[in-house]
Design brief:
Keywords: TPR repeat. The protein folds into two domains: 191 residues, no CATH class; 94 residues. 62% of the residues lie in helices and 0% in strands. The chain has 17 helices and no strands. The chain is mainly alpha-helical.
């Protein structure tokens, strides 16, 4: 059972590139319960009945003017293997049709884009994936969420899982009334206990909610039923390691993180850096530097903190203290994107 090429390749970047802001976005868009979604097969007019809304209007949130086609092209160029089936023009046309629908009064969370003269569900899903990787405008997050919801309405498994994971990681799961049907579809996948990717998302959800033992059970089940097509296996193992840390099973967590670090999962280096910060500071620094050098510039801040800790512990060794302070200053500069060299 496949998720999609994008979700397999890009999720580690998604989780680290920027914070997930779906909770504030979705809760501010529509504060009333939406009506039932429109049926598939709708032609030409990708719309549902108009709804009364409070707060910002959809057009204030879904600003396509902030997202030129070149933004989609930049994402595609960074991920050439993930988006091969359609052209940038086709992806952008999908976004335009969605924007046209809400401009006519359609509810963003119930807009149908499939059906006669509509778009293939795979294209809608990949457009959402591209939007999720656009750097800068908040509207891109809103487009990604709504387009995933549209594809989920058609029962498209990759979109159901992607959106459920997006909600879980943002802390918005269960808090957005307009997305309850997506969550219900996700729980149906989990209930089979045979979909390892769905069980991985369930484990991540339980972890985010502080239910660490429940998270471990779901993740262990995912590993039991996962086979060659278990695309999110590394992230299943990563979440299990984090749950082990929370339940004081540090040796088991370290073993998992080290195996993932060896295959190049940067998030594992981050977790190792945090885990080893007290017990093995030199190893922690190596792992944090690896992460910082591979796109996680925020890890330079942790390196700066460690250097300051070393300086404080130098005692009367003036040379060591000054060296640690210099490193702390350099790491701090690297952590600040405003620093010019």
């Amino acid at each position: 059972m496949s998720t999609c090429r994008y979700c397999k390749a890009i999720w580690p970047l998604v989780s680290s590139a920027r914070s997930l802001r779906i909770a504030s976005t979705t809760n501010s868009i529509i504060q009333r319960q939406t009506s039932s979604p429109s049926k598939l097969g709708q032609s030409r007019h990708y719309a549902v009945p108009r709804l009364q809304r409070t707060g910002p209007s959809p057009l204030e949130v879904f600003k396509l003017s902030e997202i030129p086609q070149s933004s989609l092209e930049a994402v595609i160029s960074r991920n050439p293997d993930a988006f091969q089936l359609h052209t940038p023009e086709e992806y952008y046309k999908c976004a335009e049709k969605f924007h046209e629908a809400i401009s006519r009064g359609s509810d963003p969370w119930s807009t149908t884009l499939t059906g006669k003269n509509g778009f293939p569900v795979e294209l809608i899903h990949e457009t959402a994936c591209i939007m999720r990787q656009i750097r800068g405008p908040r509207s891109a997050d809103a487009f990604a969420t709504a387009l995933w919801a549209s594809a989920s309405e058609a029962g498209y498994r990759p979109s159901i899982l992607s959106l459920a994971r997006h909600l879980a990681r943002s802390g918005a799961y269960g808090r957005v009334a307009q997305l309850r049907k997506v969550e219900a579809r996700f729980k149906q996948l989990v209930s089979t206990a045979r979909d390892p990717d769905a069980l991985t998302v369930e484990g991540e959800l339980q972890y985010e909610q502080g239910n660490y033992e429940a998270a471990i059970r779901a993740l262990q089940r995912a590993l039991q039923v996962g086979a060659a097509g278990f695309e999110w296996k590394p992230y299943c193992q990563l979440c299990m390691g984090k749950a082990f840390v929370k339940t004081s099973r540090h040796d088991e967590a370290r073993a998992i993180f080290e195996s993932l670090s060896e295959i190049g999962l940067i998030e594992a280096d981050i977790e190792l850096g945090k885990l080893l910060r007290v017990s093995d500071r030199d190893a922690a620094e190596r792992h944090l530097f690896t992460a910082a050098s591979n796109g996680r510039a925020d890890m330079f801040s942790l390196l700066s903190e460690i250097a300051l800790e070393k300086a404080a512990e130098s005692g009367d060794d003036k040379a060591s203290k000054e060296e640690s302070q210099r490193w702390a200053k350099e790491w701090s500069k690297l952590a600040d994107p405003r620093t010019e060299y």
